[in-house]
Design goal:
Keywords: Metal-binding, Methyltransferase, S-adenosyl-L-methionine, Transferase, Zinc, Zinc-finger. The protein has about 475 residues and is mainly α. It contains 15 helices and 12 strands. About 50% of the residues lie in helices and about 10% in strands. Helix 8 packs antiparallel against helix 9 (about 325-340), helix 8 runs parallel beside helix 10 and helix 14 (about 430-450) packs across helix 15.
């Protein structure tokens, strides 16, 4: 049943995929197809004291709710903006003396919102929340046991007058969240900090090579007048020109996996078999497992591939332990083994290059990090969609690394490329795009200085690097 409408997209029967959305008119690259506030959203348990429960921004000092002592906010403005969503939750937490896990908190917020708005939050919402797919019948035994525990905890927590719900209906809501919950990132897009439910977004089907992307816009609550505040919302943006009538798709998983591995992840989490062209035709699988141009023997490729897999497990373990010198040592060893055996587009080589550049940058070995970052970007560019957000952010990090290494020409060029991609995927007003715009302006000034007087530029740069670094929110 369609309950609303939007100008740029229409609900249609997508055959075996169920419902879907298609373009109501031609869309250009970078255009916002639709924006949607969350029906309900919560901060992850692990970030409950570090992230604002209203705008989902990381902040150093947060204001705690004096009533439940659980919710945290940037300031009174964010707390006031969130009160309608937090009010019932606040009372429930006080009643039981502690906050339940994020799954229970989100299910409760969804049900409180359904009671308030009968499942329809706006005229543009195309489907009622409780009409979304839950796939509870498809859950494996282990997940069903977790679900039963969550349902029990929910019943202890739930508070809405005398209104009670059956275990089956509560399970239905949990199933909807598990299949349709959208991970929310912090203001820099670098860390997953929460999860939310967006009904219209749930109608956009998956494709491993999609024509749209999804980005979280954290809104703006800084204006003195609350009438000028904007809501936290997702934006679905066109990655390319989309003709009228074409189905709108986003990717539910990162493309940098073999088609069989992507299909496995999608089946386990979303309960469908991906038949997109890139999976059914195994497009780019050959590049992701390619041998070097020197044509090493099949036995040598297998030996180095097995070694790389084991080495990546050791690298992950050392990273978790914070032993970054060991991480660098393992990366050097692994990259040495891979040289002239695995291609620069091989997944294992790209993963080691990514870790090496990130850790060396953290250790301020920028020149070495830049070399690895450059090779990583070259591989990513051959694999990702040209307007993929992950590609844009990888190029941005590589550009910053080159900039810090004093390689201003390469740094500025990479930052400009990243900016062009994020203008499509994030738009001009996103915090990350604004950061890139500032970096692009700064590197342009430095590049002019470098071309006019190279020695003076390096003197200025060395002096700047000696200054203490200050962090911004």
């Amino acid at each position: 049943m369609t309950v609303g409408n939007m100008e740029t997209a229409a609900l249609f029967d997508a055959g075996k995929k169920g419902r879907g959305l298609r373009a109501s008119r031609e869309l250009r690259a970078g255009e916002v197809v639709f924006a949607e506030p969350s029906f309900s959203a919560v901060v992850f348990d692990s970030f409950a004291t570090q992230v604002c429960h209203s705008c989902f921004r990381h902040q150093a000092k947060l204001h705690r709710c004096a009533q439940c002592k659980f919710a945290h906010y940037c300031d009174r403005t964010c707390q006031t903006a969130c009160w309608d969503e937090h009010k019932k939750e606040c009372g429930a937490i006080k009643k039981i003396g502690k906050a339940p896990n994020e799954h229970v908190r989100l299910a409760a917020r969804v049900l409180w919102r359904i009671h308030k708005d009968t499942g329809i939050a706006s005229d543009s919402q195309l489907i009622s929340v409780d009409q979304l797919e839950d796939h509870v019948a498809d859950l494996p035994e282990g997940d069903l046991k977790k679900l039963q525990t969550d349902v029990h905890n929910f019943q202890q927590y739930w508070s809405h007058g005398r209104k009670q719900h059956s275990a089956d209906y509560i399970s239905h809501i949990f199933g909807i969240i598990k299949c349709n919950g959208f991970t929310l990132s912090d203001q820099r897009g670098l860390q997953a900090v929460g999860v939310g439910l967006f009904p219209n977004l749930c109608l956009v089907n998956h494709d491993c090579w999609p024509n749209c992307t999804v980005v979280l816009n954290h809104g703006n609550q800084s204006a003195l007048s609350s009438a000028l505040h904007s809501q936290r919302r997702i934006e679905v943006r066109a990655l390319e020109k989309i003709p009228e009538g074409e189905e709108l798709t986003v990717s539910y998983v990162d493309f940098l996996d073999l088609s069989a591995d992507r299909q496995k992840k999608l089946k386990e989490h979303f309960h469908f078999d991906c038949t997109c062209s890139h999976c059914s035709q195994h497009i780019k699988d050959d590049l992701m497992m390619a041998a070097a141009e020197s044509k090493p023997s099949a036995d040598k490729v297998k030996e180095v591939t097995d070694f790389s897999k084991e080495c990546l497990e050791k690298i992950d373990k050392s990273r978790i332990q914070g032993d970054f010198h060991e991480v660098v040592k393992l990366c050097h060893e692994c990259l040495g083994k891979q040289e002239n055996v695995l291609a620069d587009t091989h997944l294992y080589r790209l993963r080691v290059l990514s870790v090496a550049s990130e850790v060396l940058s953290y250790m301020r070995s920028f020149s070495e990090a830049a070399g690895y970052a450059r090779k990583m970007v070259e591989g990513y560019t051959k694999l990702y969609h040209p307007n993929n957000a992950q590609l844009g952010m990888a190029i941005m990090r590589a550009g910053v690394t080159h900039w810090h290494a004093g390689q201003i020409e390469a740094g500025h060029s990479l930052i400009c490329k990243a900016y062009a991609i994020l203008m499509v995927t994030h738009g001009p007003n996103h915090a990350m795009t604004r950061d890139l715009e500032s970096m692009r302006t700064q590197t342009e000034v430095e590049l002019k200085m470098f071309k006019q007087n190279e020695q003076e530029y390096h003197t200025m740069r060395d002096a700047a690097l000696k200054k203490p670094v200050t962090s911004s929110s």
